[in-house]
Amino acid sequence: MNHMQNKPDLIELLSPAKNLECGLAAINHGADAVYIGASQFGARAAAGNSIEDIETLATYAHRFRAKVFVALNTILTDAQLPEAEKLIHRIYEAGADALIVQDMGILKMNIPPIALHASTQTDNRTVEKVRFLQNAGFSRVVLARELSLKQIAEISSQTDVELEAFVHGALCVSYSGQCYMSQAMSARSANRGQCAQYCRLPYHLYDADGNLLVRNKHLLSLKDLDLSAHLPEMIQAGVMSFKIEGRLKDADYVKNITAFYRKKLDEAINNRPDLKRASSGKTVFFFQPNPEKSFRRSATDYFLNGRHSGIIQPDTPKSLGEPIGKVTTLGRNYFEVEKGVQLNNGDGLCYLNKNGELVGFRANKVEGVSVFPADSTPVPPGVFLYRNQDQAFEKILNGKTAERKIAVHIHLSETAEGFQLTLTTIDEDITCSLHFEALKQPAQKPEAVEANIQQQLAKLGNTIYEASSVTIHISKPWFFPASQLSEWRRRAVDLLDQTRQQAYVREQPRKPVAANFPLRQLTYLGNITNHLARTFYQQHGVQDIQPGFEVKAPEGVPLMFTKHCIKYEMGWCPRQGNPATLREPLYLNHKGQQFRLSFDCKRCEMQIFAPSK
């Protein structure tokens, strides 16, 4: 990994925050950093937050040396530039640690000294692109989700910028930033945070002669990403930040998934003495995290370990949830399910019927393997049941599920005029000392003095600290009133808070160096929608610049570029030696809208074109 030698590599768990509540939950459940949207210009238009909430979150996060990144990752119009610049200044003043951006116009603004992260929306797939972004002044690059371990390692070995990668959550079927389907069909730009999710719709698949090949399946709807089994390999490849997707998800999702990955990452870090957590404190969980109990469309490792089939969930774009088992018997107002998983009254259950449609219902009552549905709809024997809402688990998540504490060493020593209390944080090695003048009187019960001091000084319950050890260095067993020790401890903790707050230093932005963009020409795929972005690319050697799709939509161009290939998924890939002879082009049809598919077998990619007019 490309970090400073003689210093452990910092490994970061990065969690999403729809709002302040989710952000605080992420920190409490072990996140080293949180990413959150500002009031506007974020790629999730429905997840905006006030400057005041961002400031509250940053103040809290920094107490644990955790960071707050603000997503400003949409493309901007000329009219929006002044407003965006003002907002960036306010975000910086609120204490945010970095901006996640897509629009290169931001690098030409008069902005404060805040670190910049290149959003995955900037389509970061190659060594050349990542190296350019590094040289342009980005401190971090968020890698494309489609990369394999080998490709990540190649990028890492030839760059020295921080690399962030998604490890969990929803997948866009298109290369990020390269999807124009929503804009073309409904004037809702994915690059402006308003994606209409055409990839989640059901489609018929036809050949060139109009023969129906596949009926009413979600052929572009990917399963959700789960790379939890591959964290050590990703660290080895050069990833330092592990990102959970989900800025539209609720606090329960954030708690469960953050806790799950905290445990997994800690295992990986503990096995490597050269690795260290990117923030302070230790989190104790009061529940067993389980990703199957949160929203997920099954799970895939996508392309991390190479191409394979089974990456889509063709029957439904919704969360199936936790696999339960088959329905064995149908009674008059109940059914029985095979043994194995404990169900609860009020659980949400679902199954796929013979037409491939998702049917959901609530369990009114559960007695052993007998389930009494809330409505009288019969559940056919033999269907496979899933649980997409676990009442008992949700009840646990509604309570106190985690506690995060920073370990301190407490030392009481004697001075000529009284005593000195010293607190030292274990993770950060920050020390503060307070001197107290005091009369020294021998204790009436000398044998109880040390235990009394230990007990009183270790009472850190209502703070973010916990005593890892208490040491005492006094000449005689003096008398210490409990109230006096309590007051000394309180004042020392206040001083430690102040000292740590003053010691927190935000990362400085990376200084740009002269660099040419890898391409001399930029088409609509460059997403250039304002004059500052145009200037940026011109100054980096681009000679021919076309406007972004949202400014001027060119005729007959692909609306989506994807590594997902329908021919491969269906077992029709000619490179796999499949003899299937298909009359191409193939077409996806949704309610009369027909999209043409094109297959670039050399690059192993698929493109989707607009319906012909």
Can you walk through the features of this model?
With 613 residues, this protein is an alpha/beta fold. Among the domains are: 9-171 and 223-279 and 287-293, Alpha-Beta Barrel (TIM Barrel); 322-398, Elongation Factor Tu (Ef-tu), domain 3 (Beta Barrel), CATH 2.40.30; 406-503, no CATH class. The chain has 13 helices and 29 strands. The chain has an eight-stranded parallel beta barrel, surrounded by five helices. It has a six-stranded antiparallel beta sheet with strand order 9-8-27-28-29-26, with no helix packed on it. α12 (531-539) links the parallel β24 (521-522) and β25. The longest helix is centred in the last third of the chain and has 22 residues, at 482-503. The radius of gyration is 28 Å and the shape is globular.
Task: List key phrases describing it.
613 residues, TIM Barrel, Elongation Factor Tu (Ef-tu), domain 3, 6-stranded antiparallel β-sheet, 13 helices, 23% helix, globular, disordered N terminus
What topology does this entry show?
Layout: E1 9-17, H1 20-28, E2 33-37, H2 51-63, E3 67-72, H3 81-93, E4 98-101, E5 115-118, H4 127-136, E6 140-142, H5 149-157, E7 162-169, H6 181-186, E8 203-206, E9 212-217, E10 225-226, H7 231-237, E11 241-244, H8 251-270, E12 275-277, E13 282-285, E14 322-330, E15 335-337, E16 348-352, E17 358-367, E18 370-373, E19 384-389, H9 391-398, E20 402-414, E21 418-425, E22 431-437, H10 449-457, E23 465-473, H11 482-503, E24 521-522, H12 531-539, E25 544-545, E26 558-562, H13 566-569, E27 587-590, E28 593-600, E29 605-609
Parallel strand pairs: 1-2, 1-11, 1-12, 2-3, 3-4, 4-5, 5-6, 6-7, 7-11, 20-23, 24-25
Antiparallel strand pairs: 7-10, 8-9, 8-27, 13-20, 14-15, 14-19, 15-18, 16-17, 16-19, 17-18, 20-21, 21-22, 26-29, 27-28, 28-29
Helix pairs in contact: 1-2, 1-8, 5-7, 10-11
